[in-house]
Design goal:
CATH topology of the largest domain: Immunoglobulin-like
Helix content: 10-25%
Number of domains: 2
Oligomer: single chain
CATH class of the largest domain: Mainly Beta
Mean pLDDT: 81
Low-confidence stretches: 1-33, 297-307
Radius of gyration: 24 Å
Structural class: alpha+beta
Number of helices: 7
Largest sheet: 9 strands, antiparallel
Distance between the termini: 38 Å
Length: 307
């Protein structure tokens, strides 16, 4: 169902930074309030394309063909022992509808036999919907794991190896104030930050290697106890108590990516090496250099540390 992640997904040592159910109404679609989740047998975010298939098709189920108004023998269609039973509930309604799936039609491209539980009418539904409904949890899982509302970000802190970058959105205009390694460094164009948003949204997990990111042993195993890098996005306010998304980057994977976790859930991801390479070779270099004519590193900085 849509909404914030189930409360149990927060690892004990990395609690959700204000993104839980209580904060959903306050900060709107900041992170996962519009994402669909598997709640049982364990919490898993659903890939947007599969969520769309489910929502659009189950909201107004359309039969491809009516096979029988009254089925004398449901077993003929595999509905005496349905392969899948789907209970659908709608917001604001206590009514639940149960859809049963039977066997596939023997005619190529003719879909899967289905009926409403307790009903007599048999029809076929699209193979796309039937296949999605029968996917395993791991198949449904969203692999693009850094989700946030770009326009709500107010501050960014990046620690990558020995490097430190920090950006804060100005109240007016399209620029961000910039600090590099603790010193004022001028301003950065919003277009360069947009490239960062794009890169993060594209971060894809080759594999989910653990669902126990909050445990000390797992953090040590994947280099997340002393992370190589950290990206911190603050929303709505630059105060320390503001909702934030924290992305922690650990050891290298055998494939050349890195292990990553976020404070949105207890998962450790193996980041795709191509996504890591794009971030390090295309995005970071452009963020390091301030907008033309605004570099203050040589004089105007106060030398203070990042907030």
């Amino acid at each position: 169902r849509p909404g914030p992640p189930p409360g149990v997904v927060a690892p004990p040592r990395m609690p959700l930074g204000g993104q839980g159910p209580e904060a959903a109404g306050r900060i709107g679609g900041l992170l996962s309030s519009d994402r669909w989740w598997v709640h049982r047998p364990r919490p898993v975010p659903v890939a947007s394309e599969y969520a769309s298939t489910l929502v659009e098709n189950l909201r107004r189920l359309v039969a491809e063909r009516v096979i029988a108004e009254t089925a004398a023998d449901p077993g003929e269609y595999g509905l005496d022992r349905p392969s899948v039973r789907i209970t659908v509930r709608f917001a604001g309604s206590g009514e639940a509808r149960v859809l049963e799936l039977g066997s596939d039609s023997p005619l190529t491209g003719s879909g899967t036999y289905a009926r409403v539980a307790g009903g007599q009418k048999i029809w076929t539904i699209s193979s796309e919907l039937a296949d999605t409904l029968q996917m395993s949890i791991d198949e449904l899982r969203e692999t693009m794991f850094v989700s946030f509302a770009d326009d709500r970000v107010r501050a960014v802190e990046i620690r990558w190896g020995e490097e430190r970058l920090a950006f804060q959105r100005e109240e007016t205009g399209t620029s961000w104030t910039m600090r590099r390694d603790g010193r004022d460094a001028g301003k950065q164009d919003s277009g360069k930050l947009a490239e960062l948003w794009f890169a993060l949204h594209q971060w894809r997990a080759e594999e989910v290697v653990s669902d126990r990111a909050g445990e000390a042993a797992e953090q040590g195993r994947y280099g997340l106890d002393e992370p190589y890098g950290e990206i911190r996005l603050r929303f709505g306010s630059t105060d320390k108590g503001a909702p934030e998304l924290v992305v922690r980057v650990g050891k290298e994977t055998a494939a050349g990516g890195r292990y990553v976790t976020t404070n949105e859930g207890p998962w450790v991801y193996a980041l795709d090496p191509d996504d890591l390479q794009y971030f390090e070779e295309q995005v970071l270099p452009t963020l390091r250099e301030p907008a033309a004519g605004t570099d203050e590193a040589g004089g105007g900085g106060d030398g203070g540390q990042e907030r």
